[in-house]
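User: Working on a comparison across species. This one is Sugar ABC transporter substrate-binding protein from Streptomyces triticagri. Can you predict its structure so I can line it up against the others?
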Amino acid sequence: MPENTSRRGLLFGAAAVSTGAFLTACTSNDPKESSDDDAKDAPVADEKPGKKVTIGFAGPQADHGWLNAINVQARARAKKYKDVTLEITEGSNDTAAQIGQIDTLINKKVDVLVILPADGKAMTQAGLKAMRAGIPVVNLDRIFDNPQAYRCWVGGDNYGMGLNAGHFIGEQLKDKKNAKVVELAGVDNLELTKQRTQGFDAALKNYPNIKKVARQAADFTVESGQSKMSQLLQAQKSFDALWNHDDDQGVGALRAIKQAGRDEFLMVGGAGAKSAMDAIKADNSVLKATVLYPPTMAASAIDLARALGQDKGISGLAEFEIPTSLTLYSAVVTKDNVEEYLPTGFK
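Assistant: Here's the predicted structure for Sugar ABC transporter substrate-binding protein from Streptomyces triticagri:
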């Protein structure tokens, strides 16, 4: 299909029909004329310079270690490619402000947009506007509530994060009678927090000897982690394990634990901060593991955006087009494998 008609007409139009139709309609070769031999030579993105691509990147304000790592990963990945120009916004937690930033990137006619929305549901129209303008959107982490608002979604597995934390704790306590666990959750009105708790609870159902006896919701900050953990420690005179959703608030939680002089339990963190990995490596606190929510997803989003801008697929896959979604795995980092994951730890 001619390049001048394929992007605007089929980018949004095919998505409006279905994701499957999009994959069929926008391949680089006409499927009716392709043979098995053609499929073997499907164009794929690689590190060699190709068609120049301008990628617009719009994310929330980097007021948290993980969010800052998202920006760092995106910038570093873009610099890796000589054919990529990155237009990055300042970032804002205000939905209206972020929508304005996306409008600016659309008006600049960037080739592809990578968006980590402050609020996926509230910003769906921004994604739709970009797609209608013929600009493919890579929706990062917080998902829009309409699949027509993005070409590809890439993000973490919040349910899997809780599931893996629960299974790790379960295996550590499987031989202990009447084991008790507590949970220090994140922001309760966020869907990701609910999913992490749901995964954790689902895993614990496999261990009838373990009971969750308390749960507190914090706010992903050091201060909230310390105050909420203090409340948990005061209410629970003894327990065997703690699942903490976020390593930033975990810094505060560890302070509260140290101040209380408690060490009868093991702690599992979440996200993969460098401070958590350092503590796991040192093995001198209750923190024995952290479950990753990899900020490397931002680097992957740049890879996918570049491939979209160059009308290419992904090396290692037979598909002519990039997939519509990519969910990252939440690995459990312990003392046994921390050296492998330490380079990915964020500050």
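For your comparison, note: Residues 1-40 have pLDDT under 50 and may be disordered.

User: Helpful, thanks.
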